[in-house]
Amino acid sequence: MRSSRRRPLLVPVLLCALAVLAARPTDGRDGDGGSGTALGPQVARLYEDAATATRQYEDGRRAAEAQRAKALEYERLLDGQRQKIDAMREDLGRIARAQYRSGGGLPLTARMLLADDPDGLMRGQRAVARANLAVDRTIGKNLRAEARLVADEAKAQSAWQALEKRNADLAELKKKIESKLEAARSRLEGRADSSVAAGSCPGAVRLDQPDMSAGPSWVAPVETYELSASFGSGGARWANRHTGQDFAVPVGTPVRSVGAGRVLKVSCGGAFGIQVVIQHAGGYCTQYAHLAAVAVDQGDRVDAGQWIGQSGTTGNSTGPHLHFEVRVTPEMGSALDPVPWLSQRGVPLL
Question: What is the C-alpha to C-alpha distance for residues 277 and 299, in angstroms, rounded to an integer?
Answer without folding.
Answer: 11
